[in-house]
Amino acid sequence: MPMSPEVRTACLAAAIGLALVAGPAAAAEPAQKPKPTTAAATKTVPTVPDLLKSLPDSDKIDYAFGAFQRGYYLTAFEIAVERAKLGDAKAQSLIGYLYANGLGLPRKPDEAVIWYQLAAKNGDPQALVELANLAALGIGMPVDKAKAAKYLEEALGKGVVEANYWLGLLCIDPSSGILDYARAAALFKAAADEGNVDAIYALAALNREGQGVPKNEAEAARLMGEAARDGHIAAQVEYAIMMFNGTGVARDQKIAAAWFKVAAEAGNPVAQNRLARLYVVGEGVPRDLAMARHWYGFAKSAGLSDDWLEQALAPEAPKPDAAKPDAAKPEEKPLNLPGVDTGN
User: Fold this and answer.
1) Could you tell me if residue 181 is inside a domain?
2) Domain presence at residue 318
3) For the packed helices 197-209 and 217-229, what is the interaxial angle rounded to 10 degrees?
4) Residues 255 and 344 in one domain
5) 319: in domain
6) CA-based max dimension of the chain
7) How high is the pLDDT of residue 223?
8) Global pTM value
9) Domain range spanning residue 290?
10) Would you give the DSSP letter of residue 134?
11) CA atoms within 13 A on the CB side of 175
């Protein structure tokens, strides 16, 4: 059966990677090696340009990306350089990415900026998103969030839908100089409609707080639940809190506890802390101090200590009143779980 173009491309890319990384295998020395004649040609290892010319559709960048996906970063770099010399914008972006992340090469953010700028100039709009990220974080260039916003606006104009989310983040960043919650809500909505789970979570938060949109706890809970089901860990914690308190959704302590456990098992220390509290008081789960210690141990190891849990789980401490788990510190009100910083 003939190979499909996709399989053929993958095989060829892997072959290039092996040729460049491993080099030619040394042949075994024969017992009686004949003397070479003066006319014998010296064998040479084919170069990347030679290999590319021998491949079908060698004008494509697929081979470099194939090598990149298999972890042959130097191979990807060498192939991309050949394509970049011919003005291939995707190849130039790949080189920028390798330099930005130090993959197969020394990490050089300033070199990454140069390659991304060249790629953007030659028509790769994705390079604009990468430049925006570097400008916003001050990597390879001074921090300039206004410049980052300009890069993202240009990317949006060229159809890069993921730029909606990143520009939305800048619109809710007080240090960006473009604080605009209404614009952020619209951008997050556009990104959410494309399935961006981070945007769904951000839009849920704006609806819950009434920033940029009218306050709507029911819509916030719906969106938070959608993001939680899509695997967004911070959303799972927030949705558990909303469900535990009955904020915008029917109060259900058992399901809330289940969501806390999902996020706790994913390593979220806030979820681990809240789950430990529930095990202490027996809310949504059976009362189980051993499980409380188990989950609090993880949270504490991550740096999230809790005076109330320390007291409740102390060996000689009296058992806390299930109805008043906050007796020692009534201002904490742990059953209501208000205002949790979810972290990530």
Assistant:
1) yes
2) yes
3) 160
4) yes
5) yes
6) 98
7) 98
8) 0.73
9) 251-344
10) H
11) 6
Number of domains in the chain: 2
Residues 6+ apart with CB under 8 A from 120: 89, 127, 128, 131, 151
Q: Is 103 left (phi over 0), alpha (psi -120 to 50) or beta?
A: beta
Alpha-carbon span 299 to 35, nearest angstrom: 73
Classify residue 289: in a domain, yes or no. yes
pLDDT tens string, the chain, 344 residues long: the values are 343 434 333 333 333 333 333 332 333 333 444 444 444 444 555 555 555 555 555 555 578 888 899 999 999 999 999 999 999 999 999 999 999 999 999 999 999 999 999 999 999 999 999 999 999 999 999 999 999 999 999 999 999 999 999 999 999 999 999 999 999 999 999 999 999 999 999 999 999 999 999 999 999 999 999 999 999 999 999 999 999 999 999 999 999 999 999 999 999 999 999 999 999 999 999 999 999 999 999 999 999 999 999 999 998 655 555 444 443 333 444 344 433 444 43
State how far the alpha carbon of 121 is from the alpha carbons of 89, 134, 137, 240, 307, in Å: 8, 17, 22, 46, 56
| Neighbour tally for 184: CB within 10 Å | 26
Written as one string, the DSSP assignment of 67-124 is HHHTT-HHHHHHHHHHHHHTT-HHHHHHHHHHHHHTSSS---HHHHHHHHHHHHHTT-
Structure tokens at 217: 């706890």
Residues 180 and 262 in one domain: no
- Among residues 201, 230, 259, the one where a domain terminates is 230
Crossing angle for the helix pair 269-281 and 233-245, to the nearest 10 degrees: 30
Written as one letter, the residue type at 320 is P
Residues 295 and 258 placed together within one structural domain of the fold: yes
What is the DSSP secondary structure assignment for residue 176, as one 8-state letter? G
Q: Work out the number of other CB atoms within 10 angstroms of the CB of residue 291.
A: 16
